Amino acid sequence: MNKEIHVFRNKEKMADFAIQKWIKLSRDRVKKKGIFSAALSGGETPVKFYEKLAQREKLPWAKTHIFMVDERFVPYESDENNYHLINRTLLLHVSIPPKNIHPILTSESSPQTSAQRYEKEIMSYCKNMRTRLPHMDLMLLGVGGDGHTASLFPGTPALGETQRYAVSVTPGERSKKERITITLPVINGAGNVFFMVTGENKAKVVKELIEDEKSELPAAMVKPQTGKLLFLLDESAASLLSDS
Ligand code: 6PG
């Protein structure tokens, strides 16, 4: 697998690096196939990146398609809604056509119907692109302290999904909201997968993901078939990595 590890002093530097990658990839993909597609995560880590990317007006936004990696089954107005977060920090500030934005809508009656609706959205994108899988150009992922990524939590059936593109997930602990997530076939079909991870509380999990080939953590199941895998880490998240 084509894997790179990059360590940055802080989120600001990490965001600058990711922006340079985004600029290159988006221009390149638009030139080659007329379209650039990215699936974005919620969480705290990517916010600085979204805010900085929002200032890049001259990118090929008209030809950029944005998908969501996952969503909590909460109303759009909720602070926990990923689409709301991504809209507020990025999409409302750039001239991307509304038809190019593919949110996971939580106005459905249940997380299951919300996942089905999102799967149809992905399928219709595939149909336009004449592919079976969406083959996103960029998948931006985070990692939780328990090794989850997207809304793929340890021990949940979603991890074994091989056919569906999006499924609903009950994380396990009662207090946590139900969610909708894209599945591993979609993630592993991407051209580039970036894990953005910061903070000391993630150092242990980062070490396992990078150094233990036998890890069974959900994030360790991210193995792009032909795409590139990049770990973008701050110094704290990278602090337990062995020197090499
Ligand atoms: C979310 C993501 C989740 C996230 C990780 C890391 O919407 O919360 O689905 O997978 O990327 O939990 O979150 P932080 O960036 O907040 O640490």
List strands and helices in order, with pairings.
Layout lengths: L1 E7 L2 H23 L2 E5 L6 H7 L10 E5 L1 E3 L9 H8 L11 E2 L8 H19 L8 E4 L24 E4 L9 E4 L1 H5 L3 E6 L5 H9 L16 E7 L10
Parallel strand pairs: 1-10, 2-3, 2-6, 3-5, 6-9, 9-10
Antiparallel strand pairs: 4-8, 7-8
Helix pairs in contact: 1-2
How would you characterize this protein structure?
With 244 residues, the protein is an alpha/beta fold. It has one domain (2-56, 65-182, 198-210): 3-Layer(aba) Sandwich (Rossmann fold). Helices cover 29% and strands 19% of the residues. It is built from six helices and ten strands, in the order E-H-E-H-E-E-H-E-H-E-E-E-H-E-H-E. The strands form two sheets. A seven-stranded parallel sheet has the order 1-10-9-6-2-3-5. A three-stranded antiparallel sheet has the order 4-8-7. The longest helix has 23 residues, at 11-33. 6-phosphogluconic acid is lined by residues 41-45, 70, 82, 142-144, 148-151.
Could you list some keywords that capture this structure?
binds 6-phosphogluconic acid; alpha/beta; Rossmann fold; 244 residues; single chain; 29% helix
Structure described in brief:
By secondary structure, the protein is an alpha/beta fold. It has helices spanning 11-33, 47-53, 82-89, 111-129, 184-188, 203-211; strands at 2-8, 36-40, 64-68, 70-72, 101-102, 138-141, 166-169, 179-182, 192-197, 228-234.
Architecture (CATH level 2) name: 3-Layer(aba) Sandwich
Percent range for β-strand residues: 15-25%
Classified by CATH, the class is Alpha Beta
Helix content: 25-40%
Low-confidence stretches: none
The largest sheet has its strands arranged as 1-10-9-6-2-3-5
SS-based class: alpha/beta
Query: Could you give the count of β-strands?
Result: 10
- Look at the structure and give the mean pLDDT: 95
* Rg, nearest Å: 17 Å
Q: Note the quaternary state here.
A: single chain
Hetero compounds: 6-phosphogluconic acid
CATH topology: Rossmann fold
Q: How would the global form be characterised? A: globular
How many H/I helical runs? 6
